[in-house]
């Protein structure tokens, strides 16, 4: 197997906050097949990370203590399945450092993973496997009209194989030679990292989210918080902005008391690969079965990474996908330019 790719400025995988939040983001999941796929993706993580640790020796920090969705105006009449209501007193006991809220909806099976450590572990895994040959180059164009799909690289080299998987993030639609438009566009998200343990749980509130990021292996162990994230249509412009900094700081101030000191450690941005309906594009091309899509994951690239790998990996080997991915076929965009 050839793994063709290069590090791109702004790529989403190492830039996000690593949330695993199909419960907290259920409003963005439009129907049961989509929601069920997201939940299955989240629930793969314990086994996936255990296998990754056994193979690489890297223990990826994994937090499954639940996500708290803050509420300011009373218990909501409707809640996602499996969620729990936490009243104001219980919320203060769980998170004494927050402002006063009337309560929170707890999504007890949601959480987060350290996507930066996960990214490093996956790179080590790919480099150590004899069945994978990394090719550190960008693909410029493809030709899927041949008996074996072929990719032409930026340096002019040509590689080919039995199947070809398009998994190029925000850049998926720029690949030349695709048999149809791939409606994936970059959407910039800016994030902050603050020093200190300002919350124990992943928090949704104040117009954004706060994600604890713990490094138990540091010397000394460090407690940090990630604040995110903006949604900006800026094309491939990936710089941070004063406006983004102000928006993210305002999220912190709407969630934490004014007296809470905050120390900014870093401010960065990444490019989410977004489709028109915000759902990923997965599976074979309707006209070219040897061409497989694994792109357009938007805000859920980390969440859906293991389950996407299982589905697309099986198809690339000529087997059936263990998961129903028909909802995510590129055929749903017929006629979309």
What's the name of the CATH homologous superfamily of the largest domain?
A: FAD/NAD(P)-binding domain
Content of β-strand: 25-35%
What is the H/E string? Answer: EEHHEEEHEEHEEEEEEEEEHEEEH
**Helical segment count:** 6
Describe, in short, the structure shown:
It is built from six helices and 19 strands. It has helices at residues 32-43, 45-56, 88-94, 115-128, 242-255, 305-316, and strands at 2-5, 19-20, 62-63, 67-71, 84-87, 103-107, 111-113, 133-136, 139-143, 150-153, 158-160, 164-166, 185-195, 202-205, 208-215, 222-228, 264-274, 281-284, 291-295.
How would you characterize this protein structure?
This protein is α+β, with helices and mostly antiparallel strands and about 325 residues long. It folds into 2 domains: about 1-15 and about 25-60 and about 115-185 and about 275-335, FAD/NAD(P)-binding domain (3-Layer(bba) Sandwich); about 65-115 and about 185-275, D-Amino Acid Oxidase, Chain A, domain 2. It is about 20% helix and about 30% strand. It contains 6 helices and 19 strands. It has an 8-stranded mixed sheet with strand order 5-6-4-14-15-16-13-17. Strands 2-7-3 form a 3-stranded antiparallel sheet, with no helix packed on it. Strand 18 (about 280-285) and strand 19 (about 290-295) form a beta hairpin. Helix 1 packs across helix 6. It is globular, with a radius of gyration of 21 Å.
């Amino acid at each position: 197997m050839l793994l063709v790719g290069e590090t791109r400025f702004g790529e989403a995988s190492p830039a996000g906050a690593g949330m695993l939040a199909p419960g907290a983001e259920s409003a963005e999941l439009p129907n049961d097949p989509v929601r069920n796929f997201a939940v299955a993706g989240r629930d793969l993580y314990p086994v996936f990370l255990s296998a990754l640790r056994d193979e690489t020796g890297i223990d990826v920090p994994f937090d499954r203590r639940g996500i708290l969705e803050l509420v300011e105006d009373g218990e909501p009449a409707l809640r996602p399945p499996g969620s729990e209501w936490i009243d104001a007193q219980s919320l203060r006991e769980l998170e004494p450092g927050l402002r006063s809220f009337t309560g929170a909806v707890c999504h007890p099976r949601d959480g987060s993973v350290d996507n930066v450590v996960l990214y490093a572990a996956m790179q080590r895994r790919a480099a150590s496997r004899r069945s994978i040959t990394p090719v550190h180059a960008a693909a410029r164009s493809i030709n899927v009209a041949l008996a074996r799909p072929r990719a032409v690289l930026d340096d002019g080299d040509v590689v080919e194989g039995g199947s070809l998987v398009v998994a190029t993030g925000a850049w998926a639609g720029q690949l030349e030679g695709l048999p149809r438009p791939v409606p994936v566009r970059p959407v910039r998200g800016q994030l902050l990292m603050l020093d200190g343990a300002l919350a124990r749980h992943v928090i949704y509130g104040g117009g954004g989210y706060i994600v604890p990021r713990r490094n138990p292996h540091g010397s000394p162990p460090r407690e940090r918080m990630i604040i995110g994230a903006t949604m900006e249509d800026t094309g491939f412009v990936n710089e941070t902005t004063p406006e983004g900094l102000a928006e993210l700081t305002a999220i912190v101030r709407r969630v934490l008391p004014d007296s809470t000191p905050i120390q900014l450690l870093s401010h960065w941005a990444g490019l989410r690969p977004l489709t028109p309906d915000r759902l990923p594009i997965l599976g074979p091309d309707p006209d070219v079965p040897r061409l497989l899509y694994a792109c357009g994951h938007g805000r859920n690239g980390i969440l859906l990474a293991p389950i996407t790998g299982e589905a697309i990996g099986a198809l690339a080997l000529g087997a059936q996908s263990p998961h129903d991915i028909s909802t995510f076929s590129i055929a749903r965009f017929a006629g979309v330019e």
